[in-house]
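During the reporting period the student researcher (J.K.) took over the structure-prediction task from the postdoctoral fellow and processed the backlog of single-chain submissions. One of the processed entries is reproduced below for the supervisory committee.
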Amino acid sequence: MAETVAQRLSSAGAANALELRGVSRMFGALAALSDITMTVRPGERRAVLGSNGAGKTTLFNCITGDFLPTSGTIRLFGEDVTAFPAYERIRRGLRRTYQISLLFGGLTVLDNIYLACRGVSRGRFSLIRPRRNDALMQAAEELLTAVHLTPARDTLVAELSYGQQRQLEIALALAGAPRFILFDEPAAGLSPAERRDLIDILSGLPEHIGYIIIEHDMDVALRVSERVTMMHNGRIFKEGSPEEIEEDPEVQALYLGGAHG
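J.K. obtained the following structure tokens:
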């Protein structure tokens, strides 16, 4: 099997994309996360799975800086970002999508992507209109192609199907040369055809971009990840390859209700 980007960078001694050491998050007396320790290599594609209430979204919120952990450390590409606000983590190449679409419905698909590219650029506060050969506009056009939305280029976002809006969110996350992306249930509400398209999009991302995907659709999650972390009650329950997780009897009993078919 060909060596992955993650394996090549790891063997070369590059810093891990993400390291969590003993991360916990309390809400009053409730432990939403308890002693989470996890390492994700550069370029690695990881799935984090678990039932509702397992702590998956709280984990994402701690990684992005929406919540600060109660204890533990978070390192992004070797740098301790535990106390950093969200915008500082974005500047270091971290991106995220959300379960609920956050889009400008009254603007076109291309305008939404352009604004995302502009928002992470040095000239984001300029009032000068972009020219036809504007580098950010060209980047937006390339992202249109990457997420299979070229036919909807000039369509208002409010007129898109739900699946197309999810594709657009991926394009926004790809703006500005991200290094690591957190995908929060990108397949939720999609039709079977849209889920196949999502798998193609995620599988086609540049190899150097690693990601973690939270997903209830096991078929999607296991096809787009090379390693899986299972969570239960705010803790890591199991870790392994997609094949190991799919065949694990404890995982089947707890999350799948029996054999996964």
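The committee noted the following: The chain is about 35% helix and 25% strand.
J.K. will present the remaining backlog at the next meeting.
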